[in-house]
Description:
By secondary structure, the chain is an alpha+beta fold. It contains 12 helices and 10 strands. The protein has a single domain, classed as START domain (Alpha-D-Glucose-1,6-Bisphosphate, Chain A, domain 4, 2-Layer Sandwich), CATH 3.30.530. A hairpin with a 3-residue loop joins strand 8 and strand 9. The protein starts with a helix and ends in a 13-residue tail after the last helix.
Amino acid sequence: MAKKLALCLLLAGAVSGGEAERFLSSCCAFTPAELERLNKAEAIARLIKTPDREASILGAVKLRASKEEFLAWFRNLDNFKLSPMVAEVKTFHNPPRSEDLASLSLDTQELRDARNCVPGKCGLKLSSEEMARIRKNVDWAVSDANSKASDQARNLFLNYVKDYFLRGNAALGKLNDRNPGSSIGETFTALNANFPYLKEAFPEAFNELVNFNGMGRGNPDQFVYWSREKYGFGLKPLLNITHVSIFKPRPDVILIASKQIRTTHYFDGSFGVTMLVDAPGGAFLVYINRSRIDMLHDAGWFRRTLIERALPGATRREIVGIRDRVGKTYVAPRQPKN
Length: 338
């Protein structure tokens, strides 16, 4: 599959007009029936084989919008992210400010996790140093303990993002929620190593990602945001912090790389690439994500099967939702009257 995807991206520079279908067929083994579905703006989703502790998915759909129209819509993160699954999203200033996280507070489960957190056994994805800061600065016996804990969470995530802006990948920390811990930077490197077609097809973009050494000023194609996300299936809500890098390596291709630099649950790391390729009447969107998930560490056949069965359907629903929302301004649902 990796070699086929390598060819897919290598051919991207030659795609135009009626070549788009042949491009998808040759790169990703789309069948004529799948291409027909894609041209009707139906979605394709399939698993990519990975090591046992990882999960990877490829999804594709044809947009009625051009890749430039999609990118303009995507840059407004309220339009792109907010949904029944995502309650809040906020872009960090450059440099980050305390106001960027002003609305963040820990929920009941996160407060319980923070209270009981020790290195090697913690319900939150924290480093040992961050756990020590919370223990030192929060007296759980006093009435305002929950407020103090949320203050500490805002401070530690703000400091983390500030450091990432200054030092890039060198600032990615180590998580000690279980034994052994995991390095976010090493996980990202490993996930990127499993994107060889990105390196082969677009070496400049690949090198910028793996050698990222800090955020410059005034570049709209680099930004970091945080979001509150709820996936359902009985899973805990997440706080995700994501670094977005936008590349235009060829006239007919836009790449959007999304690197999870921090989260509160489940993921040791996650990296996704969205490729937008010119097509008649719009653009093909191809999304590839690779994630290392702690629930897959030493997971049995049954748990892995459940996750793998859920991924294609969830991906298909997500990219269909994106297809239908492109160009539309997000309108928050009305709150019920008391």
